[in-house]
Design brief:
Length: about 240
């Protein structure tokens, strides 16, 4: 489980996160939704250590990520998997080499062991036949699946997905949603998904927080968010759903 408590972040006097607190449950897809500029990506970056908040705590199964000894910080980071927007693959590396990259940089396994582990992850996302292809030779949806394989190659406890459906056609988006949900349950991970795609929220929003102007306005799940009674959320939904 991941807990955030009183998280606040500002840039040049502009408050981007304002006292955000939330619990992200293990074995569930926990979604952070909101419009552009509401603080979603900043929250994610604070949670994984790219940005440092002015106030607050980020607890990984009780370990204070922001105040922990460097050895503990490294341990927590090794337990994270991140699916970046667009997949963020290395153009000069093959699909297999992209998936293997965390193992190359963080483990002392043999090449044979690393390749075997990377191939298992590619098999899990249905891309073992694409292992020797280059990113330029595969589709956008395949790149996302390669990104997922890379994110899980270290057997993480925590998975972060930043707009996983950005730029995908509707059918491919559905497949990526279900794949993330299946992997979350199989690995019993704590998964945090940043999204403004309401179809994704309906499909896999087991736990949802809604941000507006840097504040948490509402918390619930996909069964209740259409009947929240919160004007800000209802206005947001009216602009996203036809």
């Amino acid at each position: 489980m991941i807990e955030i408590k009183g998280l606040s972040k500002s840039f040049n006097g502009r408050v981007v996160l304002d006292d955000i607190s939330a619990n992200f449950q293990q074995g569930k897809t926990n979604m952070v939704i909101g419009g552009s500029g509401t603080g979603k990506s900043v929250l994610l970056k604070c949670m994984i250590g790219i940005l440092v908040p002015e106030r607050g705590k980020v607890l990984y199964d009780g370990r204070d990520f922001l105040k922990a000894h460097q050895d503990v910080v490294k341990e927590i980071r090794r337990e994270m998997g991140v699916l970046f927007q667009g997949g963020a693959l290395f153009d000069s590396k093959s699909v297999l080499e992209n998936v293997r990259f965390p193992l190359d940089t963080l483990t002392s396994q043999t090449l044979e062991e690393k390749n075997a582990q990377a191939m298992l992850c590619l098999q899990r996302v249905g891309l073992e036949s694409a292992a020797l292809l280059m990113p330029s030779e595969i589709s956008g949806g395949m790149k996302k699946r390669v990104g997922i394989a890379r994110a899980i190659v270290m057997n993480p406890k925590y998975l972060f997905c930043d707009e996983p459906n950005s730029g995908l056609d509707p059918l491919t988006a559905v497949k990526i949603d279900y794949l993330i949900q299946e992997i979350t349950q199989e690995y019993n991970m704590t998964t945090v998904v940043i999204s403004h795609d309401m179809n994704s929220v309906m499909r896999m929003g087991e736990s949802i927080i809604f941000l507006k102007d840097g504040k948490k306005i509402w918390e619930g799940n996909s069964d209740t968010f259409h009947h929240s009674g919160v004007p800000e959320l209802e206005e947001f939904l009216s602009t996203k759903l036809v």
